Amino acid sequence: MSKHVELAGSCRIDRTGVLVGEPDPGKPITIGLHLADPSERALKPGSAEDFALLRQPITRAQLAERRRSQFAEAVHHAARFAEQHGLEILSVDLVQRRIRLRGTIARMSKAFMTELISCRAGRHRYRSHAGPLHLPQELAPWVRGVLGLDTKSQLQRLRPSALDAPQSGLAGGLWPADIARFYGIAAPRRGAGQCIGIIVPRGGYLEDDLQSAAREMGFATPEVVNVSVDNGRNRFNGGSLADQEVALDLQVAAAVAPAAKLAVYFTDDSEQGLADALLAAVHDTAHAPSVISISWGVAELFWTPTPLQILNSALADAVQLGVGVTAAAGDMLATGGVDDDQVHVTYPASSPYALSCGGTRLSLSADVASISDEIVWKEGNRGTGGGVSDLFEVPIYQQTAGVPPSVSSGQLGRGVPDVAASAAFSNGYRIVVNRRQTVQGGTSAVAPLWAGLIALVNAERGSNLRMIHEQLYADPTFFRRISEGDNKAGILGYLAGPGWNPCAGLGAPIGARILEGLTAIA
User: Fold this and answer.
1) DSSP letters along 229-292, please?
2) Model confidence at 510, in pLDDT bands (50, 70, 90)?
3) Residue 453 pLDDT > 50, yes or no?
């Protein structure tokens, strides 16, 4: 029998859950073995060497062929492991670097030499494992991590203002199409031929709501396809706060790029659900989104290494394939909603591979025809996230941006956000939810707005724009700088200022200039 070794990074410490017993040993569950080639040299995400590798063009077919050859040995060892422990191989997807296994809880516990337990955090009940995982020594080097044994909600601490802030009614609300117009975001093809992917871990939507919003804004209802990931589905719940979040994503993206198709990837908010949905969107050959919008995130310190590395490898795949990813910077100011007297940025917005989206607050001209002023978004105890990553070094495209040290640690790191746009509830986004109009806001609206803008650029170019960070950081004329305001929670946080800053990044889009400049790039 093979010698077993501890899988690196698999020891979990759950300080929030309460042990409530043992799960049913006969219950079948599905887990994913996520693979990594042990012969590949680890590069620091965002480094010059990393981006030099990701810059090399590759087709999906070429990537598939490379990984079939690369992971043939891993598949052999995984098959032997499954057979020895009575586990069923449900699927092998080497493009996504994942092997799905199914078996009872008892067999999974024995196979990974750990104890699966039932826990509770508040009203949320979930499964976890009490100790590290073990794998045969010939298989372990090929495994980046195992997802699915733990089902805890990764977003249980997430409290974006779009979900948690008091409703503002309709006072001052602007249709998303009006906000796009104020930014000068418009293009002849209107996003035709593009697909915008939207990852939804909670809630759902009504087709009637999107139809009504499109009619109010003066365009045809876009094509929407629902993609189920890990049995995820459209869970509309009468206009709940989660439903409002989904409506915001769809209606903002549709308003900016009304001729683009929207692909909605329904999943759950476990580590496995989030990773599988992102992988599904990045590698979706049926709908082939050219840009993906992520409106959720949680402070970096709440991510354990394994799921973060798996998500980050999926984001790196997106860069290599020319798929843009926008991510909300969070709505809990510089602390990320964490009460520990420290500042925190959220992930996945802090990934060097994602375009991190912060928030601003608009003031309109007397005739409500243009923007008269724009400052950092901060309303009470809600406002744009932003700051300096504790996990990622300053990426190559920010080397000359003037990212300051973290006000907590004094260390340099990846600066958040990259870009910004309207996020305040005053002059917020008017949307339709459960057949009624309401106003929402938050950086959750900024991610789909920028995703729509990228889709417009790709449609006008006729091909996906690659390495968008480098292009945006290279031309200050693309932005209206946001130099007034702060994202401080009490005394913790950052001030805006000239140039890039940890509140609004490079600034708000000058849509016509971005479309002209990025469309012209070869």
Assistant:
1) STT------SS-HHHHHHHHHHHHHHHHSTTSEEEEEE--SBHHHHHHHHHHHHT-TTT--SEE
2) very high
3) yes
Where does the pLDDT of residue 121 fall: very low under 50, low under 70, confident under 90, or very high at 90 and above? confident
The reply to whether the predicted model has a pTM over 0.90 is yes
What distance in Å separates the CA atoms of residue 520 and residue 457, rounded to the nearest whole number? 10
For residue 184, the model assigns a pLDDT of 97
| Burial (CB count within 10 angstroms: exposed 0-12, middle 13-18, buried 19+), residue 491 | exposed
Candidates 150, 230, 243, 245; catalytic one: 245
Domain residues of the chain, as ranges?
4-147, 177-182+189-467
- The C-alpha R_g of the chain, in whole angstroms, comes to 22
Separation in Å, CA 135 to CA 6, 14, 36, 67, 244: 7, 22, 14, 22, 43
CA 121 – CA 82 distance, rounded (Å): 32
Q: Is 249 one of the annotated active-site residues of the chain?
A: yes
Alpha carbon distance 335, 355 (integer Å): 20
φ/ψ (deg, to 5) at 361? -125, 125
Given the residues 209, 230, 249, 268, the one annotated as active site: 249
Peptide bond into 448 cis (omega under 30): no
* The one catalytic residue among 153, 161, 313, 444: 444
* pLDDT tens string 80-95: 999 999 999 999 999 9
Residue 510 gets which letter from DSSP?
A: -
Residue 157: CB atoms within 10 A of its CB come to 15
* Predicted confidence (pLDDT) per residue in 261-281, tens digit: 999 999 999 999 999 999 999
360 strand-pairing partners: 376, 422
Residue 22 known to be catalytic = no
Q: 360-415 pLDDT, tens per residue?
A: 999 999 998 999 999 999 998 999 999 999 999 999 999 999 999 999 999 999 99
Could you tell me which residues are beta bridge partners of residue 28?
104
Alpha-carbon gap, residue 298 to 310, rounded angstroms = 16
Q: How confident is the model at residue 169 (pLDDT cuts 50, 70, 90)?
A: low
Instruction: Report d(CA 516, CA 518) in Å as an integer.
Output: 6
Superfamily of structural domain 177-182+189-467:
Peptidase S8/S53 domain (3.40.50.200)
Q: What's the sign of the alpha-carbon dihedral 482, 484, 486, 487?
A: negative
H/E stretch holding 217 reads helix 207-217
Closest CA to 125 of 147, 101, 156: 156
Told to judge if 444 belongs to the known catalytic residues of this protein, a careful annotator would answer yes
Give dist(CA 230, CA 266) in Å, integer: 8
